[in-house]
Each structure stands twice: as C-alpha cells, then as structure tokens.
Amino acid sequence: MSTQTLSTPFADELRAWRKARRLSQLDLSLSAGVSQRHISFLESGKSAPSREMVALLASTLQIPSSRRDAFFMAAGYAPARRAKGIDDPLLAPAREAIEFILERNEPYPSMALSRDWRIMAANSAMQRLSGWLIAGDPKADIPLTDLDYMDMLSDPEGLRALIVQGEEITIALLDTMIAEAAAAREVERVQHLRKLRARFPAYAPALGPLPVLELARDGWSLKFVTILTSFAPPSDPSLEGVKVELFFPADAGTRTILEAWARKAG
C-alpha cells in the first residue's frame, strides 16, 4: 500500500531542508530525538508540528536565522520577535561592541562587514588605507559604506590589481562563502559568489600557517595579518554573519607608515 503524500508548505520546506543537509528521515529523527514515523508524517502532511517541534527541527537542520521565519510561517506560526535591522534599539549593545572594537584598533585599519560582505562601518585608519589604495592619498575622502568588499578584492580593475601577496586568502573566503550560501539555499547569492570566484584560477589554495596580505602602490608596500571576529551564533537575522575584520601590521615598515598617517591626520 502506498503512503499518500500531501503537499503542504511546511512539509515541502522540511523535505527541502532535509535533502539540502543530505539527511535521510532516519538521520534526522536520530539527530532530533524524535521517531522516524513522526518525521515521515510531517513530511507527508499527515501531521502538523507544534511550535516546539518547528524550533527543534530548525535547530537540528541548522537553518540560518535569516531563513527561520519562513520555516515557522510555513507551519502556520508567527515568527519570533526580531530586530528591524542593525539600527534597531534591540541591537544597541551589538553596535556599541562594534564601535568599541573599531575605535580601539586605531591606528590600524578595521571595518564591520555584513553577512554579504558589504562594508557597514570603518574606522579612521581604514579610511586612510582606502584613500591610499583607491586614490593614492591617505587623506582622500573615500565613501566606503555599502561597498561590496569581496567584489572589490576580486575585481581585476579594483583592489586585486594592488595585491602582491595574499590572493589565496580571498579565494579561500569565496569558497567558504559559496558553501555557506549553498547550505542556506540562497540560490541568487551562490550565483553571485560563483561569478566572483570565476575571476580566479580554479585551484584550491594552500594557505600557510600565517597568511599575509601585501598591498603595493606607487612604490610603497604594506603587509598585514588579518583577524575576522563575529558574534556568538545569533538568533536574529540582523546580526547573522556580521563580522569585524581587523588589520595588523606584519612588519615594522607597515607599522611605521600607519602610525605616521595617524599623526598627520591628528
């Protein structure tokens, strides 16, 4: 006897996420601690999930917070209270933390980046570095907000032309971002990232123990090691994927130049 399958929004969503994670119904049931029969009934539309079950499955399937609202709504539940963006008062402590890090990293560059790697904020040192890179003058006023950082790094006519060493860092980041976007079922984002990745050779980069980014312009060379930091796994989409990139001088010459720029600006 065949089992009748009913197409419901939640059944379709659950099945799609399970398959995206390459899990069988048995795998999902074991991970979630529920019976395989119940998973089968949810996917066939024979059973409707409780709100607690939706939350459990969303966690088990590692559905990004940016996609969880749709998962809850497919089951007929209103999404949890969310911030209305990074400027929402609910996220004031997060904004203050970002501002603190950017300010304390002076005279070295740092910036806050959104999940799609657009620049949200930058400290004065990053503004000076960008002025030098883009206009050849650290005092140049270069608007950075909302620029696509990965597009800039991969564009042969952009910053990529100034990278002497460290291109493999960008390649590794793009490969990771493509995998994350695919896991989140973000089709358009995967397509965009693959276009950026196609600008580079197809090889898998071999990163050293401490990858160094070297930038050169007009006979000057600056070398950096970078640190990416992010919030603990957030439940709000506005913070998901937000990160701060900190640049630190990799040699004495770079340190001297950055500190000289800061003195002149002061």
Break the fold down into its secondary structure elements and pairings.
Blueprint: H1 9-20, H2 25-32, H3 36-44, H4 51-60, H5 65-74, H6 92-104, E1 110-113, E2 119-122, H7 124-135, H8 149-154, E3 163-165, H9 167-183, H10 187-197, E4 213-217, E5 220-230, E6 243-249, H11 252-265
Antiparallel strand pairs: 1-2, 1-6, 3-4, 4-5, 5-6
Please characterize this protein's 3D structure.
This protein has helices spanning 9-20, 25-32, 36-44, 51-60, 65-74, 92-104, 124-135, 149-154, 167-183, 187-197, 252-265; strands at residues 110-113, 119-122, 163-165, 213-217, 220-230, 243-249. The protein has 266 residues and is of the alpha+beta class. The chain folds into two domains: 9-74, lambda repressor-like DNA-binding domains (434 Repressor (Amino-terminal Domain)); 89-265, 2-Layer Sandwich (Beta-Lactamase). A six-stranded antiparallel beta sheet has the order 2-1-6-5-4-3, with helices on both faces. A hairpin with a 2-residue loop joins strand 4 (213-217) and strand 5. The model has no long low-confidence stretch (mean pLDDT 90).
